[in-house]
Specification:
Length: 179
């Protein structure tokens, strides 16, 4: 089997520093995430280490100078049903997401979702795959899983019609915010 060549990834405008973590597949959308947004998600993931919790990844889809997504914001999932080993997005969760995006981030799109696996590791369960296939089916939509106990996390994305783990680019935007 031939391994895909890492993609030459574009540099998003205004991002002074970046770190590539893992393998960026040549046949999938590279994932960029702002460091501050990633920190917000990791902090949120530690709020309830006994139940799965989650939220939504917002940002931009870029297709002009190479295709990639840029995760710039995180919205916790409101009104979700949280259990020790499952998370269910309710009708109220989806309605609140729509309202919050319209009110707080009208120029952003939902790029994917996040949820925790408290002490279960980094993978997508059969139920997680169902959620991703049915609600995040665009080729650029991603999932982020965080295990707050093991202090691990990983991204998953569409690749050749399958959902696979993947690398990402962490963008340090602290200099851009202060300039």
């Amino acid at each position: 089997m031939i391994e895909p060549r890492p993609k030459t990834i574009p540099s998003p405008s205004g991002s002074p520093d970046r770190s590539v973590i893992g393998t960026i597949h040549d046949d999938a959308f590279p994932i960029y995430i702002r460091e501050a947004t990633l920190e917000q998600i990791l902090d949120y993931s530690e709020r309830d280490p006994s139940h799965e919790i989650g939220g939504f990844l917002l940002g931009g889809l870029h297709v002009d100078e190479g295709e990639y997504i840029e995760i710039r914001h995180f919205l916790p999932a409101s009104d979700a049903r949280s259990r020790a080993a499952s998370l269910t997005f309710t009708h109220e969760t989806w309605a609140r997401l729509t309202r919050d995006v319209d009110e707080q981030f009208p120029d952003e799109i939902v790029l994917g979702w996040h949820h925790t696996h408290p002490n279960f590791g980094i993978f997508l369960s059969a139920y997680d795959l169902f959620i991703h296939r049915h609600f995040f089916s665009e080729p650029w939509q991603v999932a982020l899983v965080v295990d707050p106990h093991r202090q691990e996390f990983g991204f998953f994305q569409w690749r050749q019609k399958e959902i696979v783990d993947c690398g990402f680019v962490c963008v340090d935007d602290s200099q851009a915010r202060t300039s």
